[in-house]
Amino acid sequence: MRSNYILAVEDDENDITLMKRIFQKQMPDYSIKYISDGEEALQYLRSTKFKEELPRLILLDIKIPKVNGLELLKNIRLIEEYKSIPVVMLSSSDREDEIQLSYHLGANSYIEKPKTFTDLSRTLPAMMDYWIVYNR
Predict the structure, then answer these.
(1) Which DSSP category does 2 fall into?
(2) Count of CB atoms within 10 A of residue 78's CB?
(3) Alpha carbon distance 57, 90 (integer Å)
């Protein structure tokens, strides 16, 4: 069963604060759960709670501690029940090899993190409209 929440695996406190503000103001119908490292995210993905309440979307940074986002993506796509969850890589990296590997491992989209609050406040709602509204 899909719940009305977004899972964000992100370790940058500033990005988390900005994303929370944007969700509260522009997308109040969705809650957002944050996990700050890949190891904790892996444990959560394997939990009964996650399996019972799948997120509508996963936002995944590449450069996170302990287990990086690419390894986490690979683990997400190995589990059949999770293959239908859209995963958007939201990373500061613009390296072509990481972008290509993200798609190869099953990312639905790759977006370089916007550098300003204004750009982020446009990008997140547009991403939500695309991945949530159009994929009900």
Answers:
(1) B
(2) 11
(3) 12
73, 107 Cβ separation under 8 angstroms: yes
| Angle made by CA atoms 5, 135, 67, in degrees to the nearest 5 | 50
Cβ atoms of 85 and 57 closer than 8 Å? yes
Q: Which amino acid is at 27?
A: M
7: left (phi over 0), alpha (psi -120 to 50) or beta: beta
Q: SS3 for 27-93, per residue?
A: CCCCEEEEECCHHHHHHHHCCHHHHHCECCEEEECCCCCCCCHHHHHHHHHHCHHHCCCCEEEEECC
- Number of residues assigned to the chain: 136
Q: What is the pLDDT of residues 86-114, one digit of tens each?
A: 999 998 888 899 999 999 999 999 999 98
Task: Give the separation between CA 25 and CA 27, rounded to whole angstroms.
Answer: 6
From first CA to last CA, the distance across the chain in angstroms is 12
Locate tokens 């109040």: which residue?
A: 28
The answer to whether the pTM exceeds 0.85 is yes
Contact between 53 and 26 (Cβ < 8 Å): no
